[in-house]
């Protein structure tokens, strides 16, 4: 599996809601090569490292393929005229949450990255688009995007390729994983909750969530 990288995007922390809510969700494409390290892309910022960024969320990837669906869902939304509407660092076509799996390893430019979790949406998407239903639309449609951790540093630029190197967990497509841990399906999937305990590449925060759900539904 190989796809072209349509855009590499970076963001700076800026006021988001008045002056009291900083955010770096407004990311813009860059043409130059960007260094990729353990904490993500050089020059990219996150306002609140307790919920954004970090080793397990070093790079955010959102499919350009979803933009047409969002245009139908939201109507006129100028943010959808260019990559970056969802705060993504990487934009591609041909990959989505049905054909990307937890633990997939990709050569991103010259860096090696690993899929750690789907993106859990927050209220900032509603505020960014000026629409109440964006966060709910992400959850219901499973059009979430996903995060990578960086296993080997390197550099990437628009026009490079994203090449699948290894797929160790083909039983865990991201749409299914999101449904299990975030989308309200845990009660009906106790065996999968139990099985997920043995998947070490899952992001640490989602390991905690899995454990809580497993305790709640007697799946440990």
Automatic annotation (TrEMBL):
<dbReference type="GO" id="GO:0030151">
    <property type="term" value="F:molybdenum ion binding"/>
</dbReference>
<dbReference type="Pfam" id="PF03473">
    <property type="entry name" value="MOSC"/>
</dbReference>
<dbReference type="GO" id="GO:0030170">
    <property type="term" value="F:pyridoxal phosphate binding"/>
</dbReference>
<dbReference type="InterPro" id="IPR052353">
    <property type="entry name" value="Benzoxazolinone_Detox_Enz"/>
</dbReference>
<dbReference type="InterPro" id="IPR011037">
    <property type="entry name" value="Pyrv_Knase-like_insert_dom_sf"/>
</dbReference>
<dbReference type="GO" id="GO:0003824">
    <property type="term" value="F:catalytic activity"/>
</dbReference>
<protein>
    <submittedName>
        <fullName>MOSC domain-containing protein</fullName>
    </submittedName>
</protein>
<feature type="domain" description="MOSC">
    <location>
        <begin position="28"/>
        <end position="165"/>
    </location>
</feature>
<dbReference type="InterPro" id="IPR005302">
    <property type="entry name" value="MoCF_Sase_C"/>
</dbReference>
């Amino acid at each position: 599996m190989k796809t072209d990288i349509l855009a590499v995007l970076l963001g700076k922390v800026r006021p988001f809601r008045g002056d009291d809510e900083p955010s770096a969700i407004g990311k813009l494409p860059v043409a130059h090569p960007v260094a990729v390290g353990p904490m993500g892309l050089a020059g990219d910022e996150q306002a609140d490292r307790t919920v954004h960024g970090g080793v397990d969320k070093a790079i955010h990837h959102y499919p350009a393929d979803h933009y047409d669906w969002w245009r139908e869902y939201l109507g006129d939304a100028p943010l959808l005229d260019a990559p970056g509407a969802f705060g993504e660092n990487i934009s591609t076509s041909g990959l989505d949450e049905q054909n990307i799996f937890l633990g997939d390893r990709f050569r991103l430019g010259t860096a090696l990255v690993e899929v750690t979790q789907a993106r859990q949406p927050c209220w900032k998407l509603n505020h960014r688009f000026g629409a109440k239903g964006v966060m709910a639309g992400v959850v219901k449609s499973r059009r979430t995007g996903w995060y990578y951790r960086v296993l080997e540093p390197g550099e990437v630029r628009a026009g490079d390729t994203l090449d699948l190197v290894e797929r160790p967990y083909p039983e865990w497509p991201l749409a299914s994983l999101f449904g299990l841990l975030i989308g309200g399906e845990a009660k009906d999937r106790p065996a999968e909750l139990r099985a997920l305990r043995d998947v070490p590449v899952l992001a640490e925060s989602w390991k905690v969530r899995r454990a809580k759900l497993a305790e709640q539904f007697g799946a440990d």
